[in-house]
Amino acid sequence: MTTFVSPPIALLLGLIVANLSGHPFLHLNHKATNILLQVSVVGLGFGMNVNSALSAGKEGFLFTVASILSTLILGTFLGKWLKIEKKTAHLISCGTAICGGSAIAAIAPVIKSEDKQTSIALGVIFILNSIALFLFPAVGHWLDLSQKEFGLWCAIAIHDTSSVVGAASKFGPEALQIATTVKLARVLWIIPVALITAVVFKNKSSRIKIPYFIGLFILAMVMNNYVSKTAIIAPYLVSIAKIGLTLTLFLIGAGLNRSILKSVGVKPLFQGILLWIFIAIATLLTILYFN
């Protein structure tokens, strides 16, 4: 399947289906993509090297901290400047800063956002994710980035894990390993950001969703490196995981119909674009300067 349909093409096909025939199970789409993405990421762990992953994680740590803090601060100011609802602006900022839809899903109950506010934030993030999947590999090749540079860049500057993995897999195997490791380390920042959010929005009763699947990803990576018998099935698991990722992106595209795109609004989309441009350019310049 992945031989004939790349992740960007799968997303495009999903968009075509959504806007021509519609998605008959749209109400189940978000849950299905979330589960399928997590399973696919765990499967990719069977193709990762522990030492390389640790090295990438250490290198991406400072980028992660600086980019998350600066994006959240800038997002707050942009939200006030554009007069966007505080909760909507915060969800867009968190989605841009950490890991797209997953961050929004985790933060939304903490701030007790309304369905419309959550939907607008998700719409903004998914639109920009769709663009990133096509744009980033093209820019990476145009700038002649190394696989290491591209892996770091897309892990920090692309919102959703699905689009990060999709863009990196198109660029190369080393980029995929670096991007996946750095992005999953970034996902863990949902927890401290959610705790801070609960204090800022004065909500102490909300439960915070912890991304437990990252532990399974680490376990898969450890098994791939230290359990010899895993080598027999690891290539098959990685192949299945890549197919799962392609299907995930198709379903994400299939969930972006006209009504969702229209409901986003100009100001929230403008906030998302400005934040995205900031994090993409700042991260790229930092990576090129220090490398």
From TrEMBL:
Main subcellular location: membrane
Entry GO terms, CC: plasma membrane
Topological category with respect to the lipid bilayer: Multi-pass membrane protein
Compartment(s) of residence: Cell membrane
Keywords: Cell membrane, Membrane, Transmembrane, Transmembrane helix
Domain of life: Bacteria
InterPro entries with a match to the protein in the record: UPF0324_pro
Transmembrane segments: 32-54, 61-82, 88-108, 120-143, 184-201, 233-256, 268-290
The family this protein is said to belong to: Belongs to the UPF0324 family.
PANTHER family named in the record: INNER MEMBRANE PROTEIN YEIH-RELATED (PTHR30106), UPF0324 MEMBRANE PROTEIN FN0533 (PTHR30106:SF1)
Name assigned to this protein: Sulfate exporter family transporter
